[in-house]
Amino acid sequence: MRVRPGFVLPICLLGLLATSSSIAATLSDARQSVTTPASSSSDEKTGVVGSLSSSADTTLPDAPQAQSSSAQASTDAAPVGPQQTKRILFIVPNFRSVSADVKLPPTTSKEKLKIFVEDSFDYSAFAEVAILAGMAQYENSEPEFHTGGPAYARYYWHSFADNTDGNLMTEYAIPVLTREDPRYYTLGHGGFLHRTTYSVSRLFITRDNQGNPTPNFSEIVGNGAAAGISNLYYPANDRSWTKTGQRWFLQVGIDGMSDLVKEFWPDINDKIFHDKY
């Protein structure tokens, strides 16, 4: 999500233990054999004991294997800890965030396009742009827009254009060309400093379509391209190389803050709102 200056955005695996039904059946047979009446012949007792011994020899070795298979299935299960949500605080689009420990297949060009469309044209995107436009007008960030209702309309469509062309470059156009995955993969483990360092590093390191680390051209080049495109509709005073460079670096910094919020949002959502889905 592209944002205007002045706005700053912020697993436990449940184990399953399997009990072998064959062991339970064997133990049940053993108890019944122990309570056999004394009138039973010694040959019958010998036969029962021999049968129990044979059953134990063939059944007991299978129990650890059954438990191991169950543990493996539990490990491969989807995480049930704090999860990413589609929106942050019900407003900010969060469609490209991936919960911790979740493994997803590579994104296709069609899926990248879907991410761009959801981030740019979901109802929550319109609501966020409305808030950002109001804040930009309050700060009088573009004096040429003047004041009042017409000024807010100018701030709104400029903010909407910033959001759309920025998402287009960083989530679709550049990722398709460089074969990068535009999603943010939550670390979700470790201390605050470790996770913060990881989050900031995602500005420069991302994943390719095969899941391997690669330079984040989508973030750096994409935001640079978006800053250049914005010169087409901003006032002449904002079209210089200096102004364009400022918008470029500012947006990279804001995206860094956005990634930091995405990293800790599942924990915040779980602790404060007690919301897991």
What's this, in brief?
It contains 9 helices and 7 strands; from the N terminus they run H-H-H-E-E-E-H-H-H-E-E-H-E-E-H-H. It has helices at 21-34, 42-59, 62-76, 109-121, 123-138, 148-178, 192-201, 217-230, 241-272, and strands at 87-88, 92-93, 97-98, 180-181, 184-185, 205-208, 213-215. The strands form 3 sheets. A 3-stranded antiparallel beta sheet has the order 4-6-7. Strands 1-2 form a two-stranded antiparallel ribbon. A two-stranded parallel sheet has the order 3-5.
Give an account of the 3D structure.
The protein has helices at 21-34, 42-59, 62-76, 109-121, 123-138, 148-178, 192-201, 217-230, 241-272, and strands spanning 87-88, 92-93, 97-98, 180-181, 184-185, 205-208, 213-215. Helix 6 runs antiparallel to helix 8. Residues 1-77 have low confidence and may be disordered. By secondary structure, the chain is mainly α. The chain has a 3-stranded antiparallel beta sheet with strand order 4-6-7. A two-stranded antiparallel ribbon has the order 1-2. 59% of the residues lie in helices and 6% in strands. The radius of gyration is 30 Å and the shape is globular. It has 2 domains: 21-76; 87-272, no CATH class. The chain contains 9 helices and 7 strands, in the order αααβββαααββαββαα.
